[in-house]
Structure formats: C-alpha cells, structure tokens
Specification:
Blueprint: H1 21-57, H2 62-68, H3 70-93, H4 96-100, H5 107-130, H6 135-144, H7 153-181, H8 186-199, H9 204-224, H10 228-250, H11 255-275
Helix pairs in contact: 1-3, 1-7, 3-7, 5-9, 5-10, 5-11, 7-8, 7-9, 7-10, 8-9, 9-10, 9-11
Length: about 300
C-alpha cells in the first residue's frame, strides 16, 4: 500500500520520514532514545527535588523519610511525565487520539489482558528466583525496590500499580514503539522498544522480565488497537506482584512448577489476544513503509 501523505500541521515531524529506509530507521531510533532520556530525566529531577527538600527540612533520619515518601515522589514524577508523554506524541505523530488508538477496547480483550499481566508476573518472579544472578545484581535489584512497604500503602499502590503503568505505556508503547514502527519493520520495532523499556528499569534483573513484558505489551497493543489494553496488562502485572511475591517468598521450592505454569498461561493468554486481533480500517492514521497501515 502506498504511503499516505499528511499535512505538516497534522504530522509535525512527518517530513523527517519517507526519505529512505535508512533515514527512517535512524530518525525513529534517535527520536525514541531522546524520548526515553527525557522521561527518565523528568522522573530523576522530581526525585532529586523531593530528596533535597527533605534534607533541607529534616537533618535526622533522612534516608528513612526518603523511603517513606518514595511512593509520593514516584506518583508526582509520573504525573509530570504524563504531560511530557502527550507533548512528545503530539510532536511526532500529530493526532494524539488516533496515534494512540484512544478507544474503548472490545470486551474480548479485557479478561485475557488481566490474565496475561498476572501470568507474566508469575513467570517473571519464578524465573528470577531460578536464574543464578550475581550477588551485586541482587543487591542493586533489592535496593531499587526497597521503598515498597515503607510508606503509605494506598499511595504506594496507586503509584506502582496504576500511575506508573499508565504513563509508561504512553511513553514506551505510544511514543517510542509508535515512532519506531514508522521507521522500520514491526518485528524490529517491537524488539527495540522492549530493549529500551528494559534498559530504562535500571538493572540486569529488572531487564530480564521487563524486556519480555515489553514484547508482550507491544503485541497486545497491535492486536487490540487500543492503548488501554497494554495499560490493563501492565496494571495487572504490577498489581499482582502484591500477591505473587509474598506467595513465592513462602514457597521458594515451588519456583520451577510455577515458572512452567506461568510460561504456559502467558503463551495461552497472549495467543488469545493475538487471535482476537482487531481489523484495520480505511481511516487508520499512518501507513507504514512496509505496507502496514497501522498508525501508532
């Protein structure tokens, strides 16, 4: 299918694409890397600002206060990043609603999406316990999530299980994956967006399961043609950790069968989502260089 032409006012950066396969690839990579960098910069600046404020008003037990308020810090950082996400998506794609497929997903995607998130968490938690990571990697991983359970439980849950998944999906599936798909074949866009998603989580152990999660989220996004489906998967993934992790801590010997069971459920639920794929429509916004008229 011939690539459609868009008015500059609709697609602010459209003139950067369509020059050649190599330039499309380079531009999409550059924009995606800058997007991830800006997202991490916003989150880091908010955290540094909060930590500096705490140190300024309290000289004792600063580390404890930082941990107790980490949920609030993360929540505020993600709210700020939400504005950044919409600005970036508009700058690159123009029509934010169409490029994100902001539509109510079909009911047939809802239950498999919840099940996919939970089964991926089960698989990831069990697999991480079976892989012989170095002591240094384990220490860094534990340090990254040391704030869990230290502050207000409700704020922590909203931040970890709702706000973070929603914002990360807008950034990584909306802005990053959507940009990559305009410059390269879909399979390459899925893998590179998953690599960036995994790398953004900051350590080797997190990378092992966030990369797999990133691949599944991109596939769910493409199949459902709605940003809300990967958000549901991601929310289910994060929220289920409040049940699965304590369960695994109490039964470490069950890691092998639970890993196998998690892998089987992940494959089944992802298969159900892909088989329920939404059909493309004539007014989809953004034919790709390879004849795919998906518009993310």
């Amino acid at each position: 299918m011939k690539k459609e032409k868009y008015p500059v006012k609709e697609k602010p950066f459209s003139k950067l694409f369509g020059k050649s396969p190599l330039s499309d690839f380079a531009v999409s990579i550059l924009i995606s890397v800058v997007t991830v960098f800006l997202y991490l910069l916003v989150i880091s600046l908010v955290k540094l600002s909060f930590d500096a404020a705490l140190k300024a008003v309290c000289s004792d037990s600063v580390d404890s206060l930082v941990l107790k308020n980490a949920g609030i810090t993360s929540l505020v950082g993600n709210i700020v990043a939400l504005s950044l996400a919409f600005l970036l998506i508009y700058a690159v794609h123009g029509n934010t609603r169409k490029s994100l497929f902001i539509t109510v997903p079909r009911f047939r995607f809802i239950i498999p999406a919840v099940a996919l998130g939970a089964s991926l968490n089960l698989l990831s938690d069990a697999a991480v316990r079976l892989i012989p990571f170095s002591a240094e990697a384990v220490e860094k991983y534990n340090s990254l999530y040391s704030f869990l359970g230290e502050g207000n439980a409700f704020i922590e849950f909203v931040s970890v299980a709702i706000a973070a998944p929603a914002v990360e999906e807008l950034i990584f599936r909306g802005a990053v994956y959507g940009t990559l798909k305009r410059g390269m074949p879909r399979a390459a866009a899925i893998l590179i967006s998953a690599l960036l998603f995994g790398a953004a989580h900051g350590n080797l152990i997190s990378f092992t399961f966030t990369f797999l999660l990133g691949v599944a989220l991109a596939l769910a996004f493409d199949a459902s043609r709605s940003i809300f489906v990967p958000i549901i998967v991601h929310v289910a993934f994060n929220a289920s950790s409040y049940v699965i992790t304590p369960m695994m801590d109490k039964a470490p010997g069950a890691a092998v069968p639970l890993c196998i069971g998690g892998a089987a459920l992940t494959a089944l639920t992802l298969f159900l989502i892909i088989c329920s794929r939404e059909k493309k429509t004539r007014d989809d916004d953004g034919a790709s260089r390879n004849g795919d008229n998906t518009t993310i």
